[in-house]
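Example record for the data management plan.
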Amino acid sequence: MPVSLEDMMREIPSDRRTEIERNAQSMVDDHRQRTTAGPMRPPALAEALIRAQMGDTGEAAIADLAEDFRSHVGRHGVRRARFLYWGAALGSALPLLMIRASRLIAPRWLANHLRRHL
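Corresponding structural encoding:
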């Protein structure tokens, strides 16, 4: 027959029970801090990088990344969410930067080729 949590807690000495309750409360507080503390906005510099590379067409990408950021904050905490946002921002900005650079130094046919395949 299953034993209830209350019955199990009664069998634990009171000093140990207090320690368990304190640890549980600490875990709850840590989780609340991870999910609510810190800036809830994506990194401004990464957002500016996307805007600079994509112009007006980047608003949809920024909105999608911001939604992902909020989701990551809830699951992984602010630090990891910021890291993932930077990864996505750089992952989308670097190919665009390469295309712009190719326009300066490459013949037109090569720039078109890069644009089609990147």
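Summary line stored alongside the record: The CA atoms of residues 29 and 80 lie 19 Å apart.
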